[in-house]
What we know:
Blueprint: E1 8-11, H1 15-26, E2 31-33, E3 40-44, H2 48-58, E4 68-69, H3 85-94, E5 99-104, E6 110-114, H4 119-128, E7 132-133, H5 148-155, E8 161-164, E9 175-180, E10 183-188, H6 194-202
Parallel strand pairs: 1-8, 2-8, 4-6, 5-9
Antiparallel strand pairs: 2-3, 3-7, 4-7, 5-6, 9-10
Amino acid sequence: MGKPIVTLVLSARRDEDVRTAGRLLREGQIVAFPTETVYGLGARGDDPEAVEALYALKRRPPQKKMTILIADPDQCDLYAAPLSRTAAALARELWPGPLTIVVRDLAGGEVGLRCPDCDATRAMLRAAHVPVVAPSANLSGEPAALSADDVLAAFDGKIAAVLDGGTVRLGLPSTVVRVKGETVRMLRVGALDEGRIRKVLARP
Length: 204
């Protein structure tokens, strides 16, 4: 990441700080922020240098794609092909929430999307006005950060800012499913119980 920088500690309770976090993301900086599951590390997804820096910071294998966070469920069409009936039902019933849905992207590949259940983070995403990719805030293989203090312990002086929202509610990563057509495959069981997903899928 180069020479150390001053990591700003911003408050998720202050609108001005939330907007500052969004601006930093828009400028290509890396920002940590809370969700209901764990803290995330965000970077501007359409800025190759910012994405490369995030991969390097996390020591993340380049073949592991990163989830795009969206502020509102209806933003899916910015990044994904039209959702199947099943994918649309999951998004409608379980977003905002701790579910990442992997679907077909606009180029025919795949993209993971999540709308987090955290008002401050969704406001930050709106303020950024750019795509934001966001893995968990930890070095690959290490436990995810559950508080701003955890983030600073790992990344102080290496990221532009952390948006402090206190300790997260759930403390587990999001559940991840892949939806191809009407077929759902569970990729990771996390904060969202598999039973909730099955209930949605069972509805006519």
